[in-house]
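Box 3.1 A note on notation
Throughout this textbook, protein chains are presented in two layers. The first layer is the amino acid sequence; the second is a token string describing backbone geometry. Keep the layers aligned when reading.
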Amino acid sequence: MNSKQQPSSRPVSGAETIPTSPSRWIPLIHLLFLIGLLALLAPYEWNRVESENLQLPWLSRFFLYVNVDTTPYFILLMFSPLCWWLPLPLHWGFFTRFLRPRLSQTWVEKKRSDKHWDWFAISISLLLALTSLFISGWTADHIVDAERELALGDLPPAYHDEYSYLFQAETLLAGRTSFPSHAEAPELFDQVHVLNEGKMASRYFPGTGLWLAPFLAWGHPYWGYWLAGAVTTFFFFWAARELGGNGVGLLGGLIIAFSPGMAIFSNLLLAHHPTLVGLSLFLWAYLRMQRTSSFGDALLAGLGLSFAMLCRPMTAAGFALPFGIWQAVQLVRWCLQKIKKTETESSARQIWLPVAGLALPLACGLICLFLYNQSITGSGWKMPYQLYTDIYTPRHVYGFNNVIRGEQKLGPKVLDNYDKWAENLTPSLAVQNVQNRFLASLQWTLGIIPLALAALVFLLTEWKQWSRWWLVFASILSLHVVHIPYWYDGIMHWHYVFETGPLWALIFARVTQTLFRIWQQIDRPLMSVLWLAMMLTAFLTNLTVLPPLWGVSKLEIIVSNVAFSRLKHFQFQQMLNHHPQIKRPALMLIAHDPHDRHIDYVINSPYLKQQEILTGRYLPDQYPPARVQQIFPQRTLYLFDAKQNRLSRWNGTFWEPI
């Protein structure tokens, strides 16, 4: 499919080479893979079958309540010897004559040389984007409370971070970067992940708020995240097409669109989906730029990376680091050739225009970030994120021995219960975190077995040659490395490396292309069918149920996890909005449950004075109820005890239960 890449200081073609002649070691390698997978999976399956419902026949126990991460792949593994030796009984004429040519890299190269639009690719990319939109909406429609007929999308956000981003979006919609703190009792309105030091502002970087703001103004904030998922799928298709043709793009796009991790995060108001919009644009445009040396492509890549930087700077840096190293190597190599006055294949224009195109948007992004910091913290060099950590959660600081270092900087405004959640990061904890993030990123993207297998095959088939696929693989590793010095493994054990998911999808698609070619060359067509069956099995276990084999999908597991917190916030908001004895305007003080540090009900709009019901912290030592009533004479004062689930009203003398 792929033409060989010419030696050059830059790739001159979108094609990435793979071996053209099958190795005589291929049968042995297949056998070793079979033995290795059996040795890995058989003990898990044996323990599963021998641990439950021992009164049932052995075969019934095997097929009852399977482990969706292992059992389906163990069953498929049993068919691999048959697929290796049996000839394919059917001939796929339509696929051979119509689809295969259009899915190949040769088709892409021909379209480029003829300068024709590839309407086949355009149609696929749009269909993939629509598929992603559908899956996001379908996920939001999952029923999480059958009694009240509540779907996931009917509920308020689950995480502190989401409310901080909403606060940021509201602030930006007002044409500001911050609002003034309450003049007399600012501590009452300390909100998790919101600075409250004379100015109230989200601790987070402004890109997410910028993306969220128009959809919040529209009244449909989650639609912005569904769109972000669709845009991400769209651009990752084109990035994969740049590397391996329409077939690789199609497969990679399908994995991204059907990923349960992508589906649930498209329904969380976090920074990851807006970040992926920027990173997917960066990846596609950068890969094009490598082929074309175009200033326009470089500018697009720089714009994408700059936007990702304004959402999640560490993630953007980790994702782009291998590409930056590649760019620096090409630049140094060209300069050395010029110094030695040896002939170079690239002109100064081909080298410096892409560098300028990348640098210009990044410089603008850094200037915008500097000004944003200046407007909130008073210093362009001091980020709101850093200031918030210093004041409220010093034990959560980035780096090893975070708790030890943080406890040396404890101040009067530390959110003690939340701050003490942090564990001290040691090398052993860092290793455990990397393992958790790695396994979870495979599990929630496609599946541990399919993607781990793809990673091994990628290393075996690509190690002898340089191709741009190594940049994709290195980007995965780089994202893990830059997050090693953080103590928490992440939401669902992986949100810090969430952006590796689409990259894993591309690696799986590349490995599929490689294996299909090998199996075609050695006349083992049923192995391709078995590989596709493995991918289809992953899709089924991720998104559907098949009783009695498995009664819950991976997506439903994550939906239930998120719904737990959302339902608590929903019940609290229902009480605020519909309790017959709450008179407005009101101030609801919250006595939080110390055993439930991840649920915090102090959530307000930036417009404190205009809010009918304000929520605040119950701080009786600092702000006795009588003083609070004096500060807010127009508001009825209430106290909600989250641990006891009890509501009381201040009657001027004591708290009266209602």
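The first strand starts at residue 143 and ends at 145. The two ends are 74 Å apart (CA to CA).
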